[in-house]
Amino acid sequence: MERMGMVIGIAADKIAEYKALHAAVWPQVLAKLQQANVRNYSIFLREPENLLFGYWEYHGANFAADMKLIAADAETQRWWTFCGPCQLPLASRAEGEHWATTESVFHMD
Predict the structure, then answer these.
(1) Residue 92 has what pLDDT?
(2) In tens digits, what is the pLDDT along the chain, a chain of 109 residues?
(3) SS3 call for 25
(4) What is the rounded distance in angstroms from the CA atom of residue 83 to the CA atom of residue 43?
């Protein structure tokens, strides 16, 4: 299992919409995440900086392939048409990233 964290900005005027979307995530989107070996997924909001921090645990053996599985899913793509306009990707993110990945520096069980 690999713990993974990521960060992205959120537009201040879209926070309520984003919270509403995530209060009722579509079952098909959740199922695709499960199929792609993603578990224990949480998103945290930090205001007033308007940052979202995402955390998940990846339980698969081929992360790139599993992320392609998610990206190819039509229902997930439709979900992103609602979430995407709320998000503000960081200028410092790596090429090809939407959410910027973070480095794990500490963990306690």
Answers:
(1) 97
(2) 999 999 999 999 999 999 999 999 999 999 999 999 999 999 999 999 999 999 999 999 999 999 999 999 999 999 999 999 999 999 999 999 999 999 999 999 9
(3) coil
(4) 13
Tokens at 102, concatenated: 């973070």
CB-based contacts of 54: which residues, under 8 Å, 6+ apart?
A: 5, 6, 7, 8, 41, 42, 43, 44, 99
Measured distance CA(33)–CA(69) in Å, rounded: 9
pLDDT at position 23 is 98
Q: How far apart are the first and last CA of the chain?
A: 13
CA distances to 21, 45, 106, 107, 109 from 30, in Å:
13, 20, 28, 26, 26
Residue 51's nearest CA partner among 24, 13, 93, 89 is 89
CA 33, CA 38: separation in Å to the nearest integer? 5
The identity of residue 69, as a single letter, is L
